[in-house]
Amino acid sequence: MERLQRIRSCEIGDHTGERVRVAGWLHSVRRMGGINFLVLRDGWGIIQAVVEQEEALAPLLAAGAGVESVIAIEGTAAVAAQAPGGVELREPRIEVISAVMETPPVVLSKREIKASLTTQLDHAVIANRHPTRRAILRLGAVGMEAFRATLLAQGFTEIQTPKIVAAATESGANVFALDYFGRPAYLAQSPQLYKQIMVGVFERVFEVGPVFRAEPHDTTRHLNEYVSLDMEMGFIENHLPVMAVLRDVVANICAAFSERCAPELALLGVQLPVVQQPIPAIHFAEAQEVIYRLHGMDVRGEPDLSPQDERWLGEWAQQEYGSDFLFVTGYPTKKRAFYTAPDPRQPRYSNAFDLIFRGTELVSGGQRLHRYEDYLAVLAERELPEEPFAAYLEAFRYGMPPHGGFAIGLERLLMQLTGVPNIKLATLFPRDLNRLTP
Ligand code: AMO
After folding, report:
1. pTM score over 0.85
2. How would DSSP label each residue in 48-71?
3. Could you tell me if residue 117 is inside a domain?
4. Can 111 be counted among the known catalytic residues?
């Protein structure tokens, strides 16, 4: 007999009444008074097979194959309202491809993972197979695609910049040092300097890639390696056009989730945010006034917003505008990275912004300095050496337009969207203070 061509679980609806072959992992086995229900999971979802004849299970029993065994099932696809996806396989013939006889370290067949955070992370290789974990990772993939699609449609070019670099890009000590053939080097904290340089080539660039932050603390919102969705654009007057592109990017990401990830959103119980046009914005100084007025906490004069301030502002944006998003603009220039352009009307404040999503910073961005002399001045003022920035400075020495950009933290987006209590649960294989594997 000729073997049937394998179909994906998500295609089953197009084959009702036909004999089909599916293959994947044995997700669960349920015995219900003489009838057995096998659930098979493949890369696209799950599908149920009904086994009425005990003999059909013989290949599984003979191999001692338990859950997570890789199997193929040939069966007749039949409409069944109570089955996942509304279609099930009947009169199945089972073939064992890779038998698993041990109990997996994380139970995958229950609706939710019950294992502790540590067990989940230690066994992420297996835990990532759980439908809820898979759903978060799938949202991440679609999010990256929508980011790319939005920017490509607006004339941006995708770049990949070096991850082994000679200088820290984001001020501060949180850099991983490397020994580069006897010379000091670092893992890139962001593609910041290179994306700015590349404005000199393409005017509009973006990058999706890993960045590294040696933050020596264990928080629920920081990773030591994360995926940064970066963009940079030339010929702007101030930060406002950058914020407008960011608004489009975020709106398109949410639209892509809505159009292409309905099963994932339903499984995770995610309520998509409405992205207003424009997204409400508040100046940093005014944001501090709001916090003082509503919560009696005098943060005026503080150079930055704390996580608590961000949560309060998130609540305020919800009450005031019914918005899950809030732009905070005009952060104090001193507190931002050296490349930040000051607000020409009040240079104490900058043309930099953050986007807060459901009470947590999701994006940082702004207008940058673009004149060579301004860079020399700011490096001197901050007592930073010129030498490590020589290549970067060359770009400005030979002509750069006013420009700006932003970076979205992918895992932050997924954490805030899905409401998981720790960013590590929105990360493929998180790197944290204690974790270098898996
Ligand atoms: P910033 O350092 O604020 O800005 O980072 C931008 C966004 O990245 C995310 N993020 C993180 N996510 C997980 N773990 C971390 N340790 C972590 N640190 C930051 C946040 C944050 O908003 N070069 C600038 C961007 C720019 O101006 O274009 C930068 O890297 O979501």
Report:
1. yes
2. EEEE-SGGGGHHHHHHT--TT-EE
3. no
4. no
